[in-house]
UniProtKB/TrEMBL annotation:
Keywords: Membrane, Transmembrane, Transmembrane helix. The chain crosses the membrane at residues 35-58, 93-115. It comes from Trichonephila inaurata madagascariensis. The lineage of its organism: Eukaryota, Metazoa, Ecdysozoa, Arthropoda, Chelicerata. This is Fatty acid hydroxylase domain-containing protein 2. It comes from the Eukaryota.
């Protein structure tokens, strides 16, 4: 039942979404490599920093109170020291920059396996099925990669920073 409404919304908004995509495509000179690599990188970084800024504001100020009241952690350490936030932000930026080669390799692997670089967007069903598949792969991949990062060598040289951060 819900799928019917989502499909209807997708179909009715499809023209709008496609027209916006056409504008993006045209503004970048129809350069598929630029759109796929740098567009994805820019989008994910902007999305991360926009969402993270709201949570960081709460961590640094302890406001709004209703958000603090519903947090999961029990450690009442407000405000979070600004130097800790800056240190963490620096590390996040480094990690985001280090992700660029993975975007490039991933894109070129997709091209090798027949990535469709057409201008038209995929159907709702295709997007839905690919999201389900990617969610499953991400969950499994995250779990096993996190276990590998707890091996002594990787933990000492890479993953320890993850455990040094104490969230408020």
């Amino acid at each position: 039942m819900l799928q019917k409404y989502i499909l209807h919304l997708w179909e009715t908004s499809g023209d709008f979404v496609q027209s916006q995509w056409d504008k993006i495509f045209a503004s970048l000179g129809s350069d598929v490599d630029t759109i796929a690599i740098w567009g994805t990188f820019t989008y994910t970084c902007l999305l991360y920093w926009i969402v993270a800024s709201f949570y960081t504001f709460i961590d640094v100020t302890g406001k709004p109170k209703f958000a603090v009241k519903h947090r999961i952690q029990d450690i009442p350490s407000y405000p979070v020291p600004l130097n800790s936030v800056l240190k963490l932000s620096r590390q996040v930026l480094i990690n985001q920059i280090l992700s660029i080669p993975f975007y490039m390799v991933g894109y070129h692997l997709m091209v090798l396996r027949g990535y469709d670089t057409k201008k038209s967007l995929p159907s709702f069903q295709r997007v839905f099925l690919e999201l389900l598949f990617c969610a499953a792969v991400e969950e499994i991949g995250f779990y096993y990669s996190h276990r590998v990062l707890h091996l002594p060598f990787f933990y000492k040289h890479i993953h320890k920073k993850h455990h040094e951060w104490k969230s408020p």
